[in-house]
Input
Amino acid sequence: MTYDMTLERHCRVPLYTKVAVHLRKDIATRLKPGEKLEAEGKLAVRFGVSIRTIREAISSLAHEGLVERHQGSGNYVKNQAPLQHVAVILGISSSFPHQNYFVLRQVEQLHVLFRAQGYSVQVYWNYHDKESQVIDACFTDFERSLHQQRVCGMVTVAGSLNSSWREAIQKSNIPAVGSITEYRYEIDRFHMMKEGVRRLVEAGRRKIAVLEYLDSSGDKTWNDLCRTTLGSLFNQYGIHTSPSWIRGNLRASSLETGGYEEFKKIWMAEKEKPDGLLVCDDYLYQDASLAILELGIKVPKQLMVVTHANKGSSVIYPFPTLRMEWDPDQIAQIQSDLLIRFMKGESVKPQIIPIPFAWVEINQEKSNAKAPVSSVLVGDQRMVLNSPE
Output
C-alpha cells in the first residue's frame, strides 16, 4: 500500500513522525515479531518521502523498542511478548459518581489520541472506597503488567492514588505524566473562587453565598483553606456574607441531593437573602437549581448565579447562569502530547501546566421562560418544574 503524504506535509508535526505513525500501526496490526520491514528505499517510495525521513522514522521506533536495526541486514520488528501498551490509571471514588463525567471523558479522549498515534491503551481502575478484594484485583493486574514489561508509558487521571499504586508507579522508571508526577496539569479551584466572586461583585452583588464540597468529616485543611480564601475575598471587596451562607458540609450518602438541600438551608437561614451565588461544582449547581426553581426565586433579578462547569456535561441550565467552564478534551490533549514526547526520548523539564477556564454565559430568559424543565429525580420524588419568570 502506498500513502499520499501531500496533505500531511502541511502539518506542523515533523514528516518522519507522520511516517512513524503509519509504521507503528503496521507493527501493531500486520507485522509479526521478528519480521523484516520493507527496505528503506521501498518505504521511501511507498510514503513518497526521502530515505533520510524513513531512517529518522525508524530510529524513533527503535528508540521506543518496537524495531531492531541489524547492520547490513535491515530493520526487524522487535520480539515483544507481549505487546506493550499505554496504561491510563484512573483514580476514582464511587462516593462521588457526579465527578465521573470529567475524568471518564478524559480517559475516552486519551484512548482516541493514543490509538491515533498507533499505541495500544489499557485502563486500570484505582477505586478509593471499594471493598478490598476489588482494589487488590485491580492493582494485581497493573502490577503484573509492569512485571511483564507490558507498559511503555503511564497517565494518571484524577483523584488520588493509594500508596501501593503510587509506589509502583514511582519505582517503575517508565515515562509517566499525571497527578502524582512532576509532569501534570492543575485546575486552580481557589482561582475559580476568586474569579467567581469578582464577577458577582462587578455585577453589583454585595450579599454572596457559596456552595462548595466542604467535607464535614474529612479534610479539615481543605475546608479551612476554602473558608480563609473566601473570607479574604469578602474583606477585600467589603461585601456582606453570613456563616450560614457558606454551605457544603456533605456526606457521601447525601451527595445526590446535596446541592438541593444545602441551598434551601442558605435561603431559609435568615430573613435577609443573598443576591449572588457562587457554586463550585456543576453537579451541586444542578441540584441547587431545583431548589431555586421550587422557591420561585427570580434569576438573575433576585439572585445572580455563577458556577463551575465541565464542557460537554449533561447538566441542565434552566435559567441565566454564568459558567466557568473547563474542557476535559484539552487536558487529555496536553497529557497525551507530553507522554508521547517522553516515550520518544525527548528531554522535557518538569512542569505543572495550569489549565484555564472559559467564561460561558447561559441566558435562557426568552427561550425557556414558559418551557418546563426536564423532570429530575430529587430524593425519591421526580419533579417537573417551570423556570421562574
Observations:
- Residues 85 and 119 are 6 Å apart (CA to CA).
- DSSP finds eleven helices and 16 strands in the chain.
